[in-house]
Amino acid sequence: MADQFIAATGTAGSAYSGLAVSARRKTLPGPLWLRVLLGAIIPLAVLGIWQLIVSLGLIPSYRLPSPASVVLAGVDLANRGLLFSSIAISVQRVLIGFVAGSLVGLVAASAVGLSRVVSSLLAPTLGALRAVPSLAWVPLLGLYLGINEDSKVALIAIGAFFPVYTTVSAALRHVDPQLVEAGRAYGYTGTRLLGLVQLPAVVPSVISSLRLALAQSWLFLVAAELLASALGLGHLLVDSQNNGRIDRLFLVIILLGVFGKVTDALVGLLERYLLRRWGS
Amino acid sequence: MPTVPALPVVLAGVGRTFGDRRVLRDIDLEIAAGEIVAIIGASGSGKSTLLRQVGGLDQPDSGTVTIDGTPLNGVDQRTAIAFQEPRLLPWRSVARNVEVGLPRSTPRAEGRARVDELLRLVQLEDAKSLRPRQISGGMAQRASLARALARGPGVLVLDEPFGALDALTRLTMQDLLLEIHSAEPATILLVTHDVDEALYLADRVILLGTEPGYPANSGAVIRSVITVPGKRPRDRGSASLAQLRAELLDGLGVSTHHPAHTF
Ligand SMILES: Nc1ncnc2c1ncn2[C@@H]1O[C@H](COP(=O)(O)OP(=O)(O)OP(=O)(O)O)[C@@H](O)[C@H]1O
Ligand SMILES: [Mg+2]
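YS: structure for the whole thing
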């Protein structure tokens, strides 16, 4: 109810102000520090409860490490030179796989959305491939590409490809045909028409698909590194499990959350730029 | 200014059927270079469909459309069309939307100057950097007209170009169109619901509709062609036009309460 009301007055009020983009985001009005404070309440409370449970000895430390020991595990890993190299290799894999997969997804979606021939040719096959649970590719990729960087990056790219391909090709099918026709009437065809009408029209879908693709990329990174790798955050997970280092497990899970959120925020910056440029 | 000279348009036996619904039948029409022809007809009588054939956006099932002697095959770069709806790209400013109409080879600086000039003509210079959702329906329609004019077309196809304008702006824009027409002559084919507008602007007025006694899906034909007397600019209140006005309204099936009919 309240949300709807805010959304309604938000759009009506901003119809002539050019602020519809920011009105669409459902953030609390008010100073930044207040929002930061509000957002920090739950994590701080969780931390407090965690510390309390540990201090009271409600759960033995081999099942729940103390917050301090998790920090120490991080310091220890850093001293051994393992922390930053693990983070660096994982972030590198995610970024390369994400960028490659989404670019190929964008190109495939454009080709399928643009040309009926390409669509009839590609869409059924890609649809069938999508139906394969993506993790099923892991052993095959391991065999074909070897257990190396390529197979891991390829798996992440597959994970990033499908959200972009599916979302964008569906959105391209629903671009206002009247606008497409207007573009045609002014002599635009093929890729020029794509650049004039179709792609700008699907910018919001592209952005939300990129966010999905990024989340998929992290998921597939962990899957790839869990199954076969000698370095990386996923490898650190398996290693810690085998050695009973629950403090490290907690550390890696928190790190994955933090880096997932940071990269998502970067896509958020891209979103703001794109919507300012291409939003209506 | 990059303009194509006015070009003659010939429609010969043009027909268009959608499924089992015939919309147009046997349309024969010769439009001289630089002529202004207005089409009037009831809603759904196929006016927009006819314009789409001339604009090359739709192909007739029978007959041909010829522009300056060459039969049409798809969109022709010498033709510009302003649609019944403004159809502006929502993510582009008004000025950048008008830019879309420029011929492809226009140099940047020249294109910018042309867009500025057109925006001034259609009284949108203050709105040039606004997005379509920030302007009124009438402003959007004027932007759409400017986009069509940006082409410097030999044939200008206008689907109810002034439909969303208030009465006063409408009269101003009619005069503007005539000014542009005398400065940069183009062949103009326009649809309007306003009989007075047709008589004020056009050399000839075409009444489109199904023949009396035929079923509705037999296809619209040219019911009558009226040559409007006198040179432009015409006197909006002239008596000879009043007679034609009654005739046209009668053809549209509107009772005019004209003395000739009531007594
Ligand atoms: N692509 C299409 N497919 C099927 N039917 C169509 C199509 N385009 C137009 N029609 C039909 O053709 C008829 C004429 O449509 P058109 O848009 O040409 O009418 P109009 O004279 O422009 O009407 P209005 O004055 O309301 O704009 C309508 O019955 C419409 O349903
Ligand atoms: Mg129409």
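YS: worth flagging: Residues B 18, 23, 41, 43-49, 84 surround adenosine-5'-triphosphate (ligand 1) (CB under 6 Å).
IM: good catch. Also Chain A is about 80% helix and 0% strand.
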